[in-house]
UniProtKB/TrEMBL annotation:
Active site: C267
Function statement: Catalyzes the conversion of UDP-glucose into UDP-glucuronate, one of the precursors of teichuronic acid.
SMART domains xref list: UDPG_MGDP_dh_C
Record: residues binding NAD(+): 7-12, 32, 37, 85-89, 126-127, 160, 267-270, 337
Domain UDP-glucose/GDP-mannose dehydrogenase C-terminal: 323-446
Top-level class of the enzyme under EC nomenclature: oxidoreductase
Pfam family, one: UDPG_MGDP_dh_C
This protein's name: UDP-glucose 6-dehydrogenase
Keywords: NAD, Oxidoreductase
Claim: NAD is one of the keywords in the record: yes
Domain of life: Bacteria
Sites where the protein binds substrate: 156-160, 211-215, 251, 258-264, 329-330, 441
């Protein structure tokens, strides 16, 4: 059996590496248009940072795992083709800011139709609006070479930072389809290492919709606890204590109740907005408004954090140095897409603060590029002032000590474990007084820091 995966990103790369590792008898080729990305997958410095991923790739690469830019060739040779390309929020035209941009999916389907012959199984791995498979099937049926296709939906549920563990022991694998034979073929691949009772099968539309729904429910939990964090700050309740108290109710459960500076990542916001757009499309205005509030609450949480910094620091951060610890959207990843840190830093420099950022996995180039993007409007314009602020008021430090030296405040944006193990007395002595800490992740030991002399402000704690 030969598998081809189009898209060597955060999903395509790790997912296919795991299939190749667990199924040595299957030839897996991951293709992408981006030569730099493919070169990185073929090097010792993988484009995706994930604990344990290097070992998985090393085991299979060169044996039955190949990374290549020869897209046509890989499609033509494959029995099963996964589409794992990006499906970002549309930034132009109808549905801009909400609908998913399906341009890349459609291009893949057309390319598969063009170069295929015989029978192939096409698997939707990307997260897609419900009923996308209908369009994919129609495009595929236009194949001029007499090729035939079965289309399956097999959404991915891995989380970044724990991708290897999630792929190795998923809570479930979901496969939606019409042809039992095609479903069985994909089941057989996963069954090499995943118990059969964890492989769920549904119809195509349920599978497509379950992915959007899972992300909406997960994000909703974060927004719910973040909403409560605002009330905790106003009343003297402690959000971690509230989370523990409600999380022990087995119907609620303890996971995904960590209050934070706001959820980030490439998917939660995009998938909820996509769900909102779909509901509006089907005339379900109340349902759309319900889900949209999850995103609004997240925006409020980010904005509230910046406001708290400014208000606490005597209503001005102008010309003050603020150390930003962490820039990735969560720990153990180098991904910064939609990271709360981007928006907090943008708003702080617009208040004329000087931010000094340290993240163990994010480069200076990536930091400047994401800030520039966050200051750019839908028409592609960025003001001269924002450009100047990014150039002059943003710098990048090699570690937290360097970032905090001479700073008026520290803001914790990402919950990297290493941030808990620092010499806080040394940091305190090197900072301006009063030394403020704004802990956007409730990561640090409040008692320890207060004993040293820090003034600490954490999420959901007064
Ligand atoms: P990504 O941007 O990291 O990777 C997508 C890749 O597809 C890019 O490298 C791009 O160059 C390539 N590509 C686009 N069009 C192509 C084409 N026509 N031919 C060849 N290559 C092409 O995206 P990602 O984070 O891997 O996400 C992919 C999909 O998986 C999205 O739909 C996303 O919603 C979903 N998803 C992501 C995650 C996650 O943790 N990132 C988890 C579950 C699901
Ligand atoms: C999320 C889902 O967890 C995956 O199941 C899904 O496959 C993926 O989106 C996707 O479709 O892309 P991911 O975004 O990688 O995974 O990471 P999460 O662990 O879900 O965290 C998302 C954001 O929520 C992060 O910024 C995280 O810090 C934040 N978060 C999470 C909280 O603030 N509190 C929590 O309790 C949990």
């Amino acid at each position: 059996m030969k598998i081809c995966c189009i898209g060597a990103g955060y999903v395509g790369g790790p997912t296919m590496a795991m299939i190749a590792k667990q199924c040595p008898d299957i030839q897996v080729t991951v293709v992408d248009l981006n030569q730099t990305r493919i070169d990185a997958w073929n090097s010792d410095d993988l484009p995706v940072y994930e604990p344990g991923l290097d070992e998985v790739v090393q085991e299979a690469r060169g044996r039955n795992l190949t990374f290549s830019t020869k897209v046509d060739e890989a499609i033509a040779a494959a029995d099963m083709i996964f589409i794992s390309v990006n499906t970002p929020t549309k930034t132009f035209g109808m549905g801009a800011g909400r609908a998913a941009n399906l341009e890349f999916i459609e291009k893949c389907a057309r390319q598969i139709a063009r170069v295929s012959s015989g029978h192939k199984i096409v698997v939707e791995k990307s997260t897609l609006p419900v009923r996308t498979a209908e369009a994919v099937k129609r495009i595929l049926s236009s194949s001029g070479n007499g090729a035939t296709f079965d289309v399956l939906s097999n959404p991915e549920f891995l989380a970044e930072g724990t991708a290897v563990e999630d792929l190795l022991k998923p809570d479930r694998v979901l496969i939606g389809g019409e042809s039992q034979e095609a479903i069985d073929k994909l089941c057989d691949v996963y069954a090499k290492w995943i118990p059969r009772d964890r492989i769920l099968t549904t119809n195509l539309w349920s599978s497509e919709l379950s992915k959007l729904t899972a992300n909406a429910f997960l994000a909703q939990r974060v927004s719910s606890i973040n909403a409560i964090s605002a009330l905790c700050e106003a009343t003297g309740a402690d959000v971690d204590e509230v989370a523990r108290a409600i999380g022990t109710d087995s119907r609620i459960g303890p996971k995904f109740l960590k209050a934070s500076v706001g959820f980030g990542g490439s998917c939660f916001q995009k998938d909820i907005l996509n769900l909102v757009y779909l509901c509006e499309h089907f005339g379900l205005r109340e349902v759309a408004a319900y889900w949209e509030q999850v995103v609004s609450m997240n925006d409020y949480q980010k904005q509230r954090f910046t406001e708290r910094i400014v208000k606490t620091m005597f209503n001005t951060v102008s010309d003050k140095k603020i150390a930003i610890w962490g820039y990735a959207f969560k720990k153990d990843t180098n991904d910064t897409r939609e990271s709360a840190a981007i928006y907090i830093c943008r708003d702080l420099i617009r208040e004329r603060a000087r931010v000094v950022i340290h993240d163990p996995r994010v480069s200076e180039g990536q930091i400047r590029a994401t800030l520039t993007e966050a200051c750019t409007d839908m028409q592609g314009n960025i003001s001269d002032l924002d450009k100047r602020l990014i150039a002059e008021n943003v710098s990048v430090a090699k570690d937290c000590y360097e970032a905090s030296k001479g700073a008026h405040a520290v803001a914790v944006m990402t919950e990297w474990d290493a941030f808990k193990e620092l010499d806080f007395t040394q940091i305190y002595d090197s900072m301006q007084q009063p030394a403020f800490v704004f802990d956007g992740r409730n990561l640090l030991d409040r008692c320890q820091l207060e004993k040293i002399g820090f003034e600490i402000h954490a999420i959901g704690k007064s």
